[in-house]
Design a protein that fits this description.
This protein is an alpha/beta fold and 245 residues long. The protein folds into two domains: 192 residues, 2-enoyl-CoA Hydratase, Chain A, domain 1 (Alpha-Beta Complex), CATH 3.90.226; 45 residues. Helix content is 47%, strand content 16%. The strands form two sheets. Strands 1-2-3-4-6-9 form a six-stranded mixed beta sheet, sandwiched between helices. The longest helix has 15 residues. It is globular and about 60 Å long. It starts with a strand and ends with a helix.
Length: 245
């Protein structure tokens, strides 16, 4: 049986690809089990992996939660396994970039929001359709979406269920940029490669300080940074030497 999530490593970059193109990469419990295993392995590989890309095979990033799996009674290993897997992505030491084409609805939007950054293509379509099915979010939509795009746009997206295009996603701050479909992966990989040229120590420090600092007021966050910044990295001396040379 083909893997539901494919991992490819290349010179410090790990690419995770959702591999259910025939089902628009719908997020089944089995897919989450494979995704979680990859995430946990990457979290323990900071010496060899400096950045991560999450993408979907075929014409869509993901159509969202697998409704057929829900109807058939498929369940995850624990009650909040999917939400905890998204937390694990957000808590990865390495930066994570979502590359999104086609559908990115509801559960898959929550999955993309757990990533640090996002590149959308012209075909990308974002929506929160919880209301269409009489469901309510438990994977983080109510918390991550307002923090990403602001309170009013988030409520409008959630209340209406309307579809947001890739270009609008970039203009509203949901995605970093929108590019032609043919350029999606090359643009995302180039972004990741640019990060990897910098100190991986600093990448991890920046992510930790920004993400954890959001739990505080500004004054408390400034104090948190002063008290918790890891300081100088092990590669600082060598980088300064190269600069001076």
């Amino acid at each position: 049986m083909a893997p539901l999530v494919i991992r490819e490593d290349d010179n410090g970059l790990a690419i995770l690809t959702l591999n259910r193109p025939e089902a628009l990469n719908a997020l089944s419990p089995a897919l989450f089990v494979e995704l979680r295993a990859h995430i946990d392995a990457i979290a323990a590989s900071t010496d060899s992996i400096g950045c991560v890309i999450l993408c979907g095979k075929g014409r869509s990033f993901s159509a969202g939660n697998d409704l057929k799996a829900i109807q058939s009674g498929d369940v995850a290993p624990s009650r909040h396994f999917q939400a905890e897997t998204l937390d694990a992505i957000e808590q990865l030491p390495q930066p994570v970039i979502a590359a999104v084409q086609g559908h990115c609805y509801t559960g898959s939007l929550e999955l993309a929001l757990a990533c640090d950054l996002m590149v959308a293509s012209d075909s990308a379509k974002f929506a929160d359709t919880h209301g269409k099915w009489g469901m309510s979010p438990t994977w983080g939509m109510s918390q991550r979406l307002p923090r990403r795009i602001g309170l009013l746009p988030a409520k409008e997206m959630m209340f209406s269920g309307r579809v947001v295009s890739g270009s609008e996603a970039a203009s509203m701050g949901l995605a970093n940029r929108c590019v032609p479909d043919a350029d999606l992966m090359s643009t995302t990989i180039a972004m990741a490669r640019g990060f990897l040229e910098n100190s991986w120590f600093t990448l991890r420090a920046d992510k930790m300080l920004v993400n954890r600092g959001l739990d505080y007021t500004l004054s408390a966050g400034l104090e948190f940074e002063r008290e918790n910044s890891p300081g100088r990295g092990p590669d600082m001396a060598e980088r300064l030497k190269r600069f001076g040379g």
